[in-house]
Design a protein that fits this description.
Length: 116
């Protein structure tokens, strides 16, 4: 991997990770109609078995908190989606705990880079 890629925007890193997988389809910036409203997700991943996962990608200098986890959880229930993946630079402990309770996967920039 090119060392400068480590400094790339988080969205580009996540996109590259999912594009390397042959059994998934990566769709950036998707609007999904739910029962109560239209939800915007940073990306939608569709597996070959038809399951769909919403991606929340936040390239923030601050910690991602529980409110963002709650929003993607609400989206999953309303659309419905099979699950969610949240990728950011760092998470608050309460956000990680809440995500684990509801089956939302959380990955840091460094965990995604390690998988490339």
């Amino acid at each position: 991997m090119d060392p400068s890629f480590r400094q790339a925007a988080l969205f580009k890193i996540v996109e590259e990770y999912f594009r390397q997988k042959s059994d998934v389809q990566f769709k950036p910036n998707v609007e999904l109609r739910g029962r109560s409203k239209v939800w915007k997700v940073d990306a939608l991943v569709e597996n070959s078995d038809g399951s769909r996962f919403g991606l929340l990608i936040k390239d923030w200098d601050r910690t991602l908190g529980i409110n963002q986890i709650r929003q993607i959880q609400k989206c999953c229930y309303d659309v419905p989606l099979d699950g969610a993946v949240v990728v950011t630079n760092s998470f608050s402990p309460s956000a990680i705990s809440y995500a684990k309770r509801f089956g939302i996967s959380c990955y840091s920039r460094y965990e995604i880079l390690a998988k490339l």
